[in-house]
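Data card: per-record layout.
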Amino acid sequence: MANPPRVDLNVLNILAEVLIEMREFEKCARLLKELLHLTPAQKAQSSGASISTDLVLHPSNPKVLLKKLHNCPVDIVAMLAVAMCQIPNENISEDPLYNSALEVVLTHPPETHSDLHLLLVDAMLADEGTTADTVSRRWLRRANVRRWFAEQAHRILTLLEDCPSLEADLRERQAMCRWRLGQVEEAALQLEALLEDPGERTEAELRNMRVRAAEAWIEIGNSSRADQVLSCLSYEDLQRSNALPPPLSTAERKSLYKELSETIDRTLSAAAVAKDMERAHEHVGTKEELLRFFAKFRHLVYDCELDFKRLVARSTSAKEGSAPAIEDVKSNTSKPNAEDEESGPGGRTDQPPDTGQGPDSLLLLPAKAPKASASKAADEVLQAATIHKFKRRHLGIQTVEDMFGFEAYLTMVKHGVVIIRAFARSTKESKSREGTVQAAQAVEVCEMILSNRKLVAQRNPVKRRMMRDLAMLSLSVGFEARLWRVVFKHLRNICDRSGSDHVVALCSRLLFTHADVDGMGPGANKDRGDAAPWEHEKAHNASWGHRNTYAAAFTDVRGWALRKLLRRPRAFGLTLLCAHFCIIASQYPFAVAEYSRAHRLAPFEPLPALCTATAYLSFSMSRAAVCRHDLVLKGLTFLQRYRRLRLRSAGLLPLDTSQEDPSSWDGLPKERQMWEDAVTDDPLERLAMQAEVAYNYGRAFHQLSIFNPAVEAYEAALDLFESLSQSECKRTDLVVIRRSAAWNLAYLYKAQGSLEMAADVIWRHILW
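The structure for this 768-residue chain is written out next.
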């Protein structure tokens, strides 16, 4: 143009920042060169020239170029230097334009332009644009990579250190400079010192810094120090970090697996000889050896399972370059995991597979074309597994599963978790809760294996059985550690598979009779001697941002139960469970309706009748009740029916069904549930049922503030225990009924002023 429009430098600076943020470095450099008239006109106007040709500049006089850049705004010059620094170019140190731009920025004092200096340092130390993967390990090594950039960054940081007004923390950048210059051990030590005093860094920044410190120790061959640095990071933390630690070599994995297998076999054999599997952890060795065994066990499993994430990260970076997109593996029953999402069958490509040393060649394999509509999902899964194994082989990664087999790997994991569970049980009463933390980490090990191999369990019955065994082990250890999300997730899966009301009953008992583990609450930390470590470990019990609390699990189970009940409206267990949720939420009309429906589904079962009576009586005490007397009468009616059904199941009442005709109840099943006609022959069980009925009668009148019948019922319940021996009274259900009745009776005596009678009841039935 004869009279080109004036360029707004502020807008140009903002545009350059946006392009750099979007990682459009070549476009940013080309734009700044053209607008600052740093590119020859014939090449700027050539439409057929490639980007790499446009970026090459051969000035006749570098001094003229330096003078021209001095006349440009320093912010624009700094953006140009940052963009050119991020473009892969082995001869960047000889580029006069880049050197001139760098010198122009450094001529300005760091006291006034420290932000531009730090911007240059961050660009010089960035990992993007590096091609330092070795052929043997095929993993990034930062030592002696872009050494010239590290020297320039060290020069700028030296200038910034002498700036007293600078508030930025330079320690991390200095450590990365030392790493690039080959001083790996000094860099690792400086990163560890920075972790001890992080300043105002966020949790994500500290997580990435910890991974970098471990990578430095691994690079110099100190894997034990790397394990120590990564010991406080969970598998999910490692997955969410920007940089993954490099994998162990095949020899290291094989050696560590053999060492752990020998320790596990020796420990379990010694425990079997001693016939004390509950203390199997004591046969490992001393406390230090035991904790060292736990750390090695977790490190090996974490390292093998992170291969799924490593392949995803490497495939994603390669896919952004030149590879075609790969379709996800679709499954009707489960969500694809990391293995299947990146190894599914893709479209056919005309390019042959790259046999060179570049990491991108693994995505250029000719994928099979989609089969006809008669093809099954199992064929896609098999092809995905084949591609996944090729990816691991291409990156030089060989897992324990590849070397020793899936069964050997999973057996080692299960036996290791058994030893950890024994240790957790032995330290259950410890104030430090170290056993609970170890159990939570063992559950995490099981869960990440189950998550990464969802489709494995679908196509192989042997592996499916082993995965279910591992899921049951995770369920039991998670229950002891009070990881409710894990517990109820597996219970829901069991309920979906079996459809039995007994499994739903087990889920209900766990849901309504347990709470969070002691010491997990925030108020428990003030009395602990290890409050700081416990705060960190407690955060690891979260799963992808969700809290592993009882309340969170309660909400999940409620949603699941409602969805299942909509699909199976005549399921007795689900109906009763949803009614429990309603009464806990104080939604008494809905609770009465659901309990009544459960009673109609099993009219000869005592529990729905008792629950319906409880719902009516609770509804009568509500402010929303209109006809309170009617609600009380209905509650007492169902309570009477509960008494008759319960005593009949104890064999204390005759089976008179002449007046019990379910067919007259409009749509009820004529047949009874298989457990409704069960009659016990155990005299102690009969006594427990009698005491239960008496206690529930007393509790109902107690809630209605009708104290005389309540006292009589409580006394009748306690009189049943007088004829029992001391050993018979130790049964759990008898202890609960006896102490509850005694406490309520003592409370009523105390309210009436009979302190001596209250003390006598407590002395005879509660104190031990």
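Known properties of this structure: DSSP finds 35 helices and no strands in the chain. The mean pLDDT is 76.

See the next section for split statistics.
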